[in-house]
Structures are given as structure tokens and as C-alpha cells.
């Protein structure tokens, strides 16, 4: 895994060549359907305060706040409440073959922020792969403290920056992220789904 100052640490599995993702750019109905199904699930389970779901130019973004799903400080172990959220996410996404990018983020407090953010993202991919979500359609990226939503100026804002984003993309994974050759040049080694599962 490449760890660079101000650069994301990336673990990616690539996309299956024969997969036929729904091209959500041509179907706002599909994007809205995913969003509304997720919101309904989360409201039923009273998990809406821990998760934001909204549409963006890349597809559907599911943002989960680490503190609100009870991650321990400095730990990448998935808490029970977070797994409950992922179970609901998986119920909706298992019928949608689009690629998913899972991004981990931390605040700027001292610690091994690269490892924490990366491992939380990888553990999320591993968990979702046990819930009928194809691992070859997922990637995990750790940004550490380098992509804050808001300035890390007080405890409340730092809490907003500690998060995991699940981005449901409009099309094949590597086409949506960056050119495949550049990924391999800048972020080698690429970790296969089998290697992720074996860790």
C-alpha cells in the first residue's frame, strides 16, 4: 500500500470485465431509488442520525460518522452498530451491480491516521463481501486526516471529519476513479480481493 504525505493510501480490487453496471447518469430514477430505500431502512432502525445519504455527480454517497456508530478511538475494529448500518446498506446495494468505493477518514489528532482510515475502509469491504456484495466491485481507500469536511478546530468538528464514505459509482470502478495505468503507477501494489480476504 502506498502511503504518501497528502496522498490517499489505496487498496483496490478493480472491476469485473463482464459486469454490466447500471449507468446512473442516464437514470436519475435509479439514483433516487437507492437513496430513498436507504433512508427508509435507516429511519426504521433509527440510524438516520449516524448516516447521511445524498446524490452527487458520481452517484450516491452514503456517509457514516465513526463516532455515532461507536468506533473506538484509534481502532479499526468494526463495532456492532456499524455492522447494523452495513447490513441495511447491503440489503439495498446487493441488487445494484455498480462499483462502490469505500473511503476512510480521520481527524488530525496525533496517531497512525493512515493505517486507521485505510484499515476501517478495508474492514468495511471485507464485511460487505460477506453480505452478498461482490468484492470485485469494491475498493478501499484511506485518506487519513488529509481530506477534512470542516476545519479540525474543536471536538465537534473533528467528530464530523471521522467518517467512512461509501460512494456508489455510476459505472465501472477504475473508469470512475482514475486511469488504470496511473492507478498502478502511483498506488502499487494493487491488492486483490483474495489477498484482502486472507488478511
List its salient traits:
disordered N terminus; 199 residues; 7 helices; alpha+beta; 6 strands; globular; disordered C terminus; 6-stranded mixed β-sheet
Descriptive report:
The chain is α+β, with helices and mostly antiparallel strands. The chain has seven helices and six strands; from the N terminus they run βαββαβαβαβααα. The model is unreliable at 1-7, 11-17, 22-26 and 173-199 (pLDDT under 50). A six-stranded mixed sheet has the order 1-5-4-6-3-2.
Largest beta sheet, briefly? 6 strands, mixed
Helix-and-strand structural type: alpha+beta
Report low-confidence residues grouped into runs of 5 or more: 1-7, 11-17, 22-26, 173-199
Shape: globular
Our Rg estimate from Cα atoms comes to 16 Å
Number of helices: 7
Q: How confident overall, as mean pLDDT?
A: 78
How many distinct beta strands?
6
Distance between the termini: 14 Å
Compressed to H and E, one letter per element, the order equals EHEEHEHEHEHHH
Strand content: 15-25%
The proportion of residues forming helix, as a percent range, comes to 25-40%
Strand arrangement, major sheet: 1-5-4-6-3-2
Amino acid at each position: 500500500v502506498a502511503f504518501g504525505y497528502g496522498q490517499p493510501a489505496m487498496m483496490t480490487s478493480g472491476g469485473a470485465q463482464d459486469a454490466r453496471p447500471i449507468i446512473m447518469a442516464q437514470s436519475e430514477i435509479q439514483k433516487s431509488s437507492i437513496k430513498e430505500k436507504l433512508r427508509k431502512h435507516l429511519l426504521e432502525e433509527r440510524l438516520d442520525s449516524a448516516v447521511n445519504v445524498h446524490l452527487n455527480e458520481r452517484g450516491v454517497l452514503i456517509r457514516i460518522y465513526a463516532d455515532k456508530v461507536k468506533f473506538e478511538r484509534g481502532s479499526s475494529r468494526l463495532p456492532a452498530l456499524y455492522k447494523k448500518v452495513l447490513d441495511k446498506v447491503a440489503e439495498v446495494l446487493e441488487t445494484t451491480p455498480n462499483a462502490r468505493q469505500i473511503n476512510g477518514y480521520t481527524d488530525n489528532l496525533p496517531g497512525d491516521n493512515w493505517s486507521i482510515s485505510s484499515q476501517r475502509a478495508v474492514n468495511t469491504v471485507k464485511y460487505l463481501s460477506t453480505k452478498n456484495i461482490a468484492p470485485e466491485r469494491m475498493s478501499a481507500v484511506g485518506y487519513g486526516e488529509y481530506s477534512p469536511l470542516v476545519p479540525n478546530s474543536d471536538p465537534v468538528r473533528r467528530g464530523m471529519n471521522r467518517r467512512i464514505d461509501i460512494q456508489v459509482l455510476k459505472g465501472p470502478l477504475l473508469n470512475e476513479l482514475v486511469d488504470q495505468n496511473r492507478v498502478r503507477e502511483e498506488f502499487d501494489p494493487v491488492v486483490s480481493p483474495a489477498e484482502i480476504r486472507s488478511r
